[in-house]
Automatic annotation (TrEMBL):
Pfam family for this entry, one: Response_reg
Descriptive protein name: Response regulatory domain-containing protein
GO-annotated biological processes: phosphorelay signal transduction system
Keyword Phosphoprotein: yes
SUPFAM superfamilies, A to Z: CheY-like (SSF52172)
Keyword tags: Phosphoprotein
Species for this entry: Acaryochloris marina (strain MBIC 11017)
Signal peptide: none
Phylogenetic placement of the source organism: Bacteria, Bacillati, Cyanobacteriota, Cyanophyceae, Acaryochloridales
The Response regulatory domain, residue ranges: 261-378
Residues with 4-aspartylphosphate modification: 311
Length: 385
């Protein structure tokens, strides 16, 4: 069993991908302010996610669900035909192959449908802390195309990064996907002048259901609904209470004045958020999501950056190459560089040392471990934590 902190789930899934894991990963997260545990199961095939849902459905249930999502009126007839033709009645892939051969839908359609569902499921999990338990013996043969591939991990990551940024843009007005909208008592001088909004407020916003619950019942994307609700919030029609991830409060800009400055370089917005939450009380954290951005930040803050947190695995230019580049600049030859990587191996540690790193940590890294490593090089003026 693996315990993960808020913002670390995506890194845990990345480790399963790198290990080419096949099997089920059972994920439980804690929605802290509501004492709710949200559970999902993710299935992997040779490191690729193929499905995330409340459970692993059998071929009949999966077929019926796809029929509803695609509004296929003949799905029950197609299921009966497939039952007569399949050699393995437990194989979802066999059922899907028959459906594609009779042009009920294409492999591309079904893959896009499950991809979008997977993104929405991960949206509900990523902000929170929880645990992950794997079962390599679990069997579930959902995969896509005749080559039986899984979902594209890079595309998943890119989509999730954009959505996490979009969710961040809703804060602090809408603190999370589990926030609860409440109607505001509006006087005649500040009335809701939109008929659609009036009907929606009366039908859906009761101060009991969360943003996620409303979106699920309406079969809408929670993020799109949240963006609509933000506009209504700014108009003074609704307000929000409810769940926030368990995080350490971040210091204000005033509080951060005088704190040592750290540059964190990582292409994952989720990891960057986790780092800020872990050390933001003790250090001012600048961020960059690529080698080029990192060099620009260093150039603009050459006299203030006191330590570099550097992810090894990044697109275009990896952490080793960036570290060598930084070390080639005379001003940064003695800058402490802590490398963070999901690959815990002697070879990578040696490569990091050869590139010029001064410390090496394996992700996911605990808050205390990260703070202790940083304080070896730049002690925090705020020692209590």
């Amino acid at each position: 069993m693996l315990q993960f902190q808020a913002g670390q789930l995506q890194q845990s899934l990345e480790e399963l991908r790198q290990d080419a894991f096949s099997g089920a990963a059972y994920i439980d997260v804690s929605i802290n302010t509501q004492n709710i545990v949200r559970s999902q199961v993710a299935f992997f095939k040779e490191g690729a996610i193929t499905y995330i849902g409340n459970d692993l459905p059998n071929p009949i249930d999966f077929s019926q669900e796809i029929g509803k999502l695609l509004n296929l009126k003949i799905i029950n007839a197609a299921i009966k035909m497939a039952e007569k033709k399949v050699k393995d009645p437990t194989s979802i892939h066999s059922y899907l192959s028959i459906y594609t051969r009779i042009n009920l839908f294409t492999w591309e359609q079904i893959e896009k449908l499950i991809f979008n569902q997977t993104v929405l499921r991960l949206d509900q999990l990523l902000p929170y802390e929880g645990r992950l338990v794997t079962n390599a013996q679990a069997e579930f043969d959902l995969c896509y195309g005749e080559d039986r591939h899984g979902l594209d991990w890079q595309q998943l990551q890119a989509t999730l990064v954009k959505r996490q940024q979009a969710w961040t843009d809703l804060e602090p007005d809408i603190p999370s996907i589990d926030a609860i909208p409440h109607p505001i008592q509006i006087n005649k001088n500040h009335a809701v002048d939109d008929a659609h909004a009036q009907k929606h407020l009366q039908t859906w916003i009761d101060g009991q259901r969360s943003l996620l619950q409303i979106a699920s019942e309406m079969k809408q994307d929670p993020l799109a609904l949240g963006q609509l609700y933000l506009r209504w919030h700014k108009l003074g029609w609704i307000t929000f209470t409810g769940a926030q991830p368990k995080i350490t409060a971040q210091p204000s800009t005033t509080e951060q004045k005088g704190l040592p400055v750290i540059l964190s370089v990582d292409d994952s917005l989720v990891v960057q958020t986790m780092i800020k939450r872990a050390i933001g009380d003790h250090y001012k954290v600048l961020t960059a999501n690529s080698a080029i951005d990192a060099l620009q930040v260093l150039n603009n803050n050459s006299n203030s950056v006191e330590l570099l947190l550097l992810d090894v695995t990044m697109p275009d230019v990896d952490g080793f190459e960036l570290c060598r580049t930084v070390r080639s600049i005379p001003q940064f030859q003695n800058l402490p560089v802590i490398m963070l990587t999901a690959k815990d191996g002697l070879l990578n540690k040696v490569k990091g040392q050869m590139a010029g790193s001064t410390h090496y940590l394996t992700k996911p890294v605990e808050k205390e471990t990260l703070l202790n490593a940083i304080e070896k090089y730049i002690p925090s003026p705020q020692m209590s934590r």
